[in-house]
Amino acid sequence: MNYLNKKTVEDIDVAGKRVLVRCDFNVPFDSEGNISDPKRINEALKTIKYLLDNNAKVILCSHLGRPKGEFNMKYSLKPVADYLTNALGFEVKIADDVIGESAKALAASVEEGKAVMIENVRFHKEEEKNDAEFSKALASLAEIYVNDAFGTAHRAHASTAGVADYLPAVCGYLIQKEIAVMGGALTEPKRPFVAILGGAKVSDKIGVINNLLDKCDTIIIGGGMSYTFSAANGGKIGDSICEADKFDLAKGIMAKAEEKGVNLLLPIDTRLGDAFSPEANTQIVDAGQIPDGWQGLDIGPKTEELFASAVKGAGTVVWNGPMGVSEWDAFASGTIAVATAVAESGAISIIGGGDSAAACEKLGFAEKMTHISTGGGASLEFLEGLELPGIACLNEK
Ligand code: AMP
User: Fold this and answer.
1) Which residue of 23, 34, 251, 253 lies most exposed, with the fewest beta carbons within 10 A?
2) pLDDT for 238-257, tens place per residue?
3) What CA–CA distances, in Å, run from 251 to 119, 126, 226, 239?
4) 77-92: pLDDT as tens digits
5) Ligand 1 centroid, distance to 327 Cα (angstroms)
6) Is-above-0.85 flag for pTM?
7) 364/340 Cα distance (integer angstroms)
8) Residues that are catalytic
9) Hey, whose CA ends up nearest to atom 17 of ligand 1?
């Protein structure tokens, strides 16, 4: 599943056409109702501006929050329309509804080189059900469909997939980049190909580990999930997070790595806390030697060196999940060390959303990475080799 052959906005004539663009405008708000981080809107601007410059009549849509299938103005996209008005330099009007009279009238009236918006697609429960009638109604607003919402590309919803049954369907620049970088790494990685996986649970990452075991030269496992591997190997893990029902799975992964000649690296030491707290007392011990009453909350300094040297000289690095409880300064060191090693490696570096993306941004490494995915869940499913309905539905070149 690499999708390298999907059509993009540049493969279709948009001049004078009404183009429905599915964006990810699911932005956070502060307590006063102001957009607190407009990053997702800014990221969508490249596609929107391309369409405007090429005289399309742009109709923007997105979800925002979880209005549970009902009209609830707390989740209105009006603040996004106001933000776009400023960013684009003309008034971006927003309809009162999604597929009703207001949306139809506004979509019919949009001029070439201008953009309007319809309301939050999740105001209708049919959206998440990928209902055919609702998809058809969305499609009837336009002549071309563009999906640029990578963050929801792993969902088969009406505005992310169903609508493509009724219109020519292409991707925008955000999805194009995700496809090019991640798809490229999975099909023809520059070697050595190193994957770094962390985060809380093995069960969340098992699909990714299995898929990458077929492709990688080295797999590094850190974070909470490493303690399940340690315990499966007979190590003492004290009160560390552990999935006891996944021991066989962990052993299976280690056996598969050996069989395939993949270098599987686990922590050799660990930074402990005597409570799950940012203020916990800490100590460092070798892996598998954790006393009762203590829990592993980060990798230790010897492991930092081991992981950094495995990353050095890599051709491609894929990283998903922190090495410890990186939200807390006392247990962020391992994640910082890995982020630094990836940033300095010179490899094609792909960061899969969520906490690892946040760590890179917080540390000022974002610019040094080749690609920080705009979708945590979607990038994981991509790396698992699963079909992404929001991309699979788009037309081939
Ligand atoms: P994920 O969403 O699976 O990537 O997991 C990220 C979460 O894993 C973060 O909130 C971390 O705080 C948490 N985490 C990482 N390492 C540990 C650990 N050793 N013990 C408990 N939680 C952890």
Assistant:
1) 34
2) 999 999 999 999 999 999 99
3) 49, 43, 12, 21
4) 999 999 999 999 999 9
5) 9
6) yes
7) 10
8) 40, 201, 354, 377
9) 224
